């Protein structure tokens, strides 16, 4: 009698060929390990255990097996499934760690990186020099005054004793303002009209400096700008002499330029002062021995000055028998470029930060 091994007495050998299972596993494992990202891994998972996979096919076969062997086959497949799931899980963890690391690298904040500090501005070199000049004169007891930039012909010329046929009054030199009014208005060509405003105020004595912007119809070049700055000085008191004027200039020049720079007065002419003088400083470039900057003379003209003309006093109701005074005026921009050895006035207004930040 044929004896069939009783399924109950000894466990039937597992129905699936172990080489085939090993082949399925190694094929899936190499695909899983090769997956470069999560999508590739999902594809590898589909091929390994998805509906159309060899693994799924084996599962279908399982159903057709005799119940006696089905259990062993089920265990084989579960075992394989467990190992494949492990491999998938391992790869998934590795990929997400990689992804996190690369995201961190992208978003990295390097706290050791040296950041450029925020750009900080500073006062323009002309403003700096203006403030220095104000300080020097305030130290000598002067007040700092201001006046309008649009003036009438009377303040800018007439009251300053500048005759009607004076060349400065021509439209070649002066910017006139089209005011639509009968009175001639213009952009002041110098700060001297503020002398008139100060005298009209009627508070004497006067010790004042007046910094401010002035306008002339000049084409910009190395020594001219159509808009520039002047500093006017006016002193009116009892018994003021030309010696006081000279002493004042001799005090402020070294305060601005340093002790080695000397100053001198030369006779000059201005309608609103009498006598008038031009004041010059020894050339800071060649120390007075003569160079291109000072045209070989050793001296550079800085401004004009003189004793206040009696006609100016009379225009403003100040008694020239009781009061006397001196005035001076010079260009702040020219003084600034001399101070700093700058070759061309236009550099001051070109707004090149690389130039401006040097001062
Ligand atoms: N206002 C004159 C100018 O612009 C400069 C000047 C000369 C001012 C003599 C003065 C002075 O106060 O006394 O050229």
Structural commentary:
Strand 7 and strand 8 form a beta hairpin. The radius of gyration is 48 Å and the shape is rod-shaped. It folds into two domains: 18-104; 125-356, BirA Bifunctional Protein, domain 2 (2-Layer Sandwich). It is 40% helix and 19% strand. The longest helix is centred in the N-terminal third of the chain and has 40 residues, at 67-106. The N and C termini lie far apart (119 Å). It contains eleven helices and ten strands. The model has no long low-confidence stretch (mean pLDDT 91). The strands form two sheets. Strands 1-5-6-10-9-8-7 form a seven-stranded mixed sheet, with helices on both faces. Strands 2-4-3 form a three-stranded antiparallel sheet. With 359 residues, it is an alpha+beta fold. Helix 3 (54-64) packs antiparallel against helix 4 (67-106). Residues 190, 192, 232, 270, 273, 303-306, 327-329 line the site of 3,4-dihydroxyphenylalanine.
Annotation keywords:
single chain; 359 residues; alpha+beta; BirA Bifunctional Protein, domain 2; seven-stranded mixed β-sheet; three-stranded antiparallel β-sheet
User: What coarse outline follows from CA principal-axis ratios?
Assistant: rod-shaped
CATH architecture of the largest domain: 2-Layer Sandwich
- Ranges where pLDDT stays below 50 over 5 or more residues in a row are none
Question: What is the ordering of alpha helices and beta strands?
Answer: HHHHHEEHEEHEEHEEEHEHH
CATH topology of the largest domain: BirA Bifunctional Protein, domain 2
In angstroms, what is the radius of gyration? 48 Å
Question: How many DSSP helices?
Answer: 11
The mean pLDDT is 91
CATH superfamily of the largest domain: Bira Bifunctional Protein, Domain 2
Bound molecules: 3,4-dihydroxyphenylalanine
Proportion of residues in extended strands:
15-25%
- The CATH class of the largest domain, by name, is Alpha Beta
In total, how many domains does the architecture comprise? 2
């Amino acid at each position: 009698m044929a004896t069939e091994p009783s399924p109950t007495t000894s466990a039937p050998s597992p129905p699936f060929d172990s080489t085939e299972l090993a082949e399925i596993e190694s094929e899936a494992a190499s695909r899983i390990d090769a997956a470069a990202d999560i999508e590739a891994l999902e594809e590898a998972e589909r091929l390994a255990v998805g509906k159309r996979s060899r693994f799924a096919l084996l599962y279908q076969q399982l159903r057709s097996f005799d119940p006696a062997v089905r259990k062993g086959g089920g265990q084989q497949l579960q075992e394989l499934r467990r190992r494949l799931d492990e491999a998938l899980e391992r790869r998934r963890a590795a990929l997400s760690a990689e992804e996190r690391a690369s995201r961190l690298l992208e978003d990295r904040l390097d706290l050791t990186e040296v950041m450029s500090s925020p750009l900080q501005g500073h006062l323009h070199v002309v403003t700096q020099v203006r403030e220095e000049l104000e300080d020097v004169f305030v130290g000598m007891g002067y007040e700092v005054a201001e006046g309008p930039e649009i003036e009438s012909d009377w303040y800018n010329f007439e009251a300053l004793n500048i005759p009607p046929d004076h060349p400065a009054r021509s439209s070649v030199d002066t910017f006139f303002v089209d005011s639509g009014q009968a009175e001639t208005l213009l952009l002041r060509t110098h700060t001297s009209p503020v002398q008139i405003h100060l005298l009209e105020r009627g508070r004497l004595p006067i010790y004042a400096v007046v910094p401010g912007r002035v306008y002339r119809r000049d084409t910009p070049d190395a020594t001219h700008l159509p808009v520039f700055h002047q500093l006017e000085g006016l002193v009116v008191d009892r018994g003021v002499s030309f010696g006081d004027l000279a002493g004042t200039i001799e005090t402020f020049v070294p305060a601005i330029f340093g002790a080695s720079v000397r100053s001198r007065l030369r006779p000059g002419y201005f309608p609103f002062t009498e006598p008038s003088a031009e004041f010059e400083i020894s050339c800071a470039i060649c120390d007075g021995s003569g160079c291109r900057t000072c045209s070989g003379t050793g001296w550079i003209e800085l401004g004009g000055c003189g004793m206040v003309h009696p006609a100016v006093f009379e225009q403003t109701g100040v008694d020239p028998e009781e009061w006397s005074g001196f005035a001076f005026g010079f260009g702040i921009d020219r003084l600034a470029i001399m101070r700093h050895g700058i070759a061309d006035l236009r550099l001051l207004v070109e707004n090149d930060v690389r130039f401006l930040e040097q001062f």
